[in-house]
Amino acid sequence: MSALITDSRFPDPDRAYRALIDAHRGLSDERSAALNSRLVLILANHIGDQAVLQEALTLAKQSMAQQEPGAD
Amino acid sequence: MNTRKSLYQFGYRRCADQDRSSPARHPVVVVGAGPVGLCTAIDLAQRGVPVVLLDDADRIGEGSRGICYAKRTLEILDRLGVAEPCLAKGVTWKLGKVFQRDDLLYAFDLLPEDGHKMPAFINLQQYYLEHALVERAAALPNLEIRWRNKVVGLNRRNDGVTLTVETPDGSYAVEADWTVAADGARSGIRGMLGLAFQGEAFEDRFLIADVKMKGDFPPERWFWFDPPFHEGRSALLHKQPDDVWRIDLQLGPDADAKAEQAPERVLPRLRQMLGHDDFALEWVSVYTFQCRRLERFVHGRVVFAGDAAHQVSPFGARGANSGIQDADNLAWKLARIARGEASESLIDSYDLERSTAADENIGHSTRSTDFIAPRSSQELRFRDAALALARHTPFAKRMVNSGRLSLPSTYETPLSTPDREAWSGSAHLGAPLPDAPMRDRSGQPVWLLEALKGEETVLHVPNGQEPPAGLNVLVIGEDLVDESGLFAQRFDAAPGSTYLVRPDQHLAARWRYADPEAIQSASRRLRGLAGVTA
């Protein structure tokens, strides 16, 4: 059984998305990447479960593989 | 470029006010005969308030136009007597589809349940709506439309406003107890009062084109992210009456507005999208947009409504719809004040309720625009990540935002009497009533919202006790029969349940048992008289 929750959990996902956009507004690309890296570490620790982290990594990679040029 | 010819022409006529030695005084002057000004004027006139409606043009059918009219707006138009011609002409729809490249990401249904008189949406060229409204206005003896009457000056006094109006015969002055400024996004009256119009401007340019063709697309809203015919951008397709299709293409921030409207640029884009060139270009324009609003909608005796008060991006169809909902909120309040039935402070609730609604609409349309038109490479990466994950996960699907379509606001307002009991169902305090199919005393089918008309009404489910007296009361099971059970379901109704409905059909109060004193007190609140004993 999957431990990673992929159902929608925010009552208002648009606001959550907007919070991410807002946090990055005005940052250079490099600063944005740095912010995201910190954010990933913070959230990974919050999850605190190696199996869930592994599943999330797999899902992220899987969705990238399908976005590679030519894979459309 | 604007190639649309005017479809309806009206004549300037000299009016009696122009021949007076001192200015005539009217209870309400509405400025701007677009959908919002027309709805406000019709609503006021229906409520017995004489209205003068001024417009600087003498025709309709030009300019960029709204095409999507939402269920709540149609319910308002029905109360104003114009829904029928709009429904007859309009394209009814409720399904939306969102594509990425060629793939369907998801579909949504805006009205999955039956038992409502009005559909989720119709698409209709704005000039057809305006024409229906002008015809309705002409049938009201206490509503006078004055074409080619341009307001060029405004003087505020404590008890009203003096307007200077320019006509082909020269200018004249007219006084109004109240002035409604519904004169659009470039509101002249807003300028005359020197009011700031603050908010966010967006850089992305969009191409809007109306195309005439025989298409076999269904009557649905189709939205593409990164479509094969318009790489890296977004596109939107809507069906309109008369075999006209609305196409909206994102061009990006650097597009040259003039060059993009040239047929040699537009036609190949559309050919690529439609897969053929068997179409005629009816109208094309390039636009950018702003999300902004006035800080306050009420300035003494001048009240702003529609685009004059607030502007949104087009994603979500929240412009014309929210403007008509402004009119719906404003008219009954002004009518009560004009008739001396309410405290003048009732108008403050218009400012509160509709500026909160404007914030909601601006919030939704801003968030949609963030998603549709990312501004930096990081924003684009977030957007593309959400789109990619949407193919695998429900959470990301819910984040995909191609426009959240117009829904009416639920007012948190001092006009509502807070619930004392818990309620389920789809009726919410402060929200417009959900419709329901009913039968009247003679067994004829009637919709709940039709039966309410525009009157303050008490709905009461009998429980053997005396029904509330003195107010406009409809008894469920007698005046209105709930044969389908949908009223009971949507209102969580049981014997004794009693509901107070505002003239704009929003729910003001409800009780499990009718208490005449509580009903009277809730009704006083609706006149802005909270705390005042009867």
Description of the molecule:
The complex is a heterodimer of chains A (72) and B (534). Chain A has 72 residues and is mainly α. Chain A has three helices and no strands. Helix content of chain A is 65%, strand content 0%. Helices cover 28% and strands 27% of the residues of chain B. In chain B, helix 8 (319-338) runs antiparallel to helix 9 (346-372). Among the domains of chain B are: 8-84 and 123-197 and 293-365, FAD/NAD(P)-binding domain, CATH 3.50.50; 370-399; 437-525, Glutaredoxin, CATH 3.40.30.120. Chain A binds chain B through residues 5-10, 13-18, 20-21, 24-25, 27, 29, 32-33, 36, 59-60, 62-64, 66-67, 72, and chain B through 101, 364, 366-368, 370-371, 375-379, 382, 384-386, 388-389, 391-399, 401, 404. Chain A: InterPro entries: DUF2783 (IPR021233). Chain A: It comes from Microvirga aerilata. Chain A: This is DUF2783 domain-containing protein.
Compile the SSE list and pairings.
The complex is a heterodimer of chains A (72) and B (534).
Chain A: H1 13-24, H2 29-47, H3 50-65
Chain B: E1 8-9, E2 24-31, H1 35-46, E3 51-54, E4 59-60, E5 68-70, H2 71-79, H3 83-89, E6 91-93, E7 95-100, E8 103-109, E9 121-123, H4 126-138, E10 143-146, E11 150-157, E12 160-167, E13 170-181, H5 188-192, E14 198-201, E15 205-212, E16 221-225, E17 234-240, E18 244-252, H6 257-260, H7 263-274, E19 280-287, E20 290-293, E21 298-299, E22 302-304, E23 310-311, H8 319-338, H9 346-372, H10 377-390, H11 394-399, E24 437-439, E25 445-447, H12 448-452, E26 457-460, E27 473-475, H13 486-491, E28 498-501, E29 507-511, H14 516-525
Parallel strand pairs in B: 2-3, 2-13, 3-10, 7-16, 13-22, 26-27
Antiparallel strand pairs in B: 1-4, 5-9, 6-9, 7-8, 11-12, 12-13, 14-20, 15-18, 15-19, 16-17, 17-18, 20-23, 21-22, 24-25, 26-28, 28-29
